[in-house]
Amino acid sequence: MNKRNDAVRVFDILPYKQVFPFVMRKRSEALVFQTMILDLTKAVEFIKNNKAPDGRNYRVFELFIAAIMRTIVLRPELNRFLANNKYWQRNDLSVNFVVKEDYTDDAPEHSMPLYFKEDMILPEFSEIINQAIIDQRKPSNSSSTDDLIRFFLHFPQWFIKLCVAFLRVLDNHGKAPKGLLEADGLHTTIFISNMGSIGLGGGSPHHHLYEWGTTSLFATMGIMRRTRKKVEDKTIFTDLMEVGFTVDERITDGFYFTKSINLMQDLLNNPASLMERPVLPPKPLTKKEFKKKLKAQKRDQKAVISA
Fold first, then answer.
1. Contact 180/167 with Cβ under 8 angstroms?
2. How far apart are CA 281 and CA 270, in angstroms?
3. Where are the domains of the chain?
4. Which terminus of the chain, N or C, has fewer Cβ atoms within 10 Å?
5. pLDDT per residue over 222-259, tens digit each?
6. CATH for the 7-278 domain, from 3.40.50.300, 3.30.750.24, 3.30.559.10, 3.40.640.10
7. Of the candidates 241, 153, 67, which has an alpha carbon nearest to the alpha carbon of residue 78?
8. For the segment 286-307, what is each residue's pLDDT rounded down to a tens digit?
9. What is the SS3 string spanning the chain?
10. Cβ 96 vs Cβ 76: under 8 Å
């Protein structure tokens, strides 16, 4: 099965990586955890000096998401997942996070899968994120997803298990209903948890990836802390935030991921670049294009040997 309704097949994979799905069959067998300290000093300065088109201040959260989405656009291997022992590149760019209606123990919380276009700029990211947060925090808000789950839970357990197993098979073969994929936060490019917003100290915890769905990246944001140091007669302030990343190592290698994080830091050091449209990288090779590439490589190898 080389077709899905949410992604395209990636054929141009190094041979040793093609073995990964058979050696590491589950995401839980391929988890890599990485803690990064990101410098948000320039980002905070940008937020203080620039406002969104509607006149409000940008959130650090919005800028963080815009930077990580831009990074994924420019580093497309991060937008891949494995299903049915094959590599796939998502058709969309998406993020999921959870919003609580208010900061009390029993306040309802809602999953927020959001979808973006690859060439979006900061004001466009910000508008979508801000409006989604406003909508979900309305007291009268009733999530259609929550309502559907409540209805579903009225059925006997054997029926629920059967339906979930059936949906899992459909999803594994890329035939799950589009409505389920769009509503399910575990079919997004990345899941982001803003632990700093609830005041969790002591660093940023690492979250596992779920076997359900196709999300291959998880990021947890810690509390942003301001540090200061004396340089000659000047006091320099630095805004730092610890971020915990969890990655399915089968989708890319450590070198690629490290370069991607460095790119994200560059974007945070230069937030004005998020106000410009990106130059999009090429799409994955089709099966025909990949075969043509292999033939060209073999011809080049023969030419080198004969020379």
1. yes
2. 20
3. 7-278
4. C
5. 888 888 877 777 888 899 999 999 999 999 988 999 99
6. 3.30.559.10
7. 67
8. 999 999 998 888 888 887 777 6
9. CCECCCEEECCCCCHHHHCHHHHCCCHHHCEEEEEEEEECHHHHHHHHHCECCCCCECCHHHHHHHHHHHHHHHCHHHHEEEECCEEEEECCEEEEEEEECCCCCCCCEEEEEEEECCCCCHHHHHHHHHHHHHHHCCCCCCCHHHHHHHHHCCCCHHHHHHHHHHHHHHHHCCCCCHHHHHHCHHHCCEEEEEHHHHCCCCCCCCCCCCCCCCCCEEEEEEEEEEEEEEECCEEEEEEEEEEEEEEECCCCCHHHHHHHHHHHHHHHHCHHHHHCCCCCCCCCCCHHHHHHHHHHHHHHHHHHHHC
10. no
Q: Which two tokens stand for residue 13?
A: 């994979």
Compute CA distances 243 → 1, 57, 196, 266, 277, whole Å: 37, 23, 10, 16, 26
Q: Which two tokens stand for residue 210?
A: 């779920």
Question: Does pTM surpass 0.85?
Answer: yes
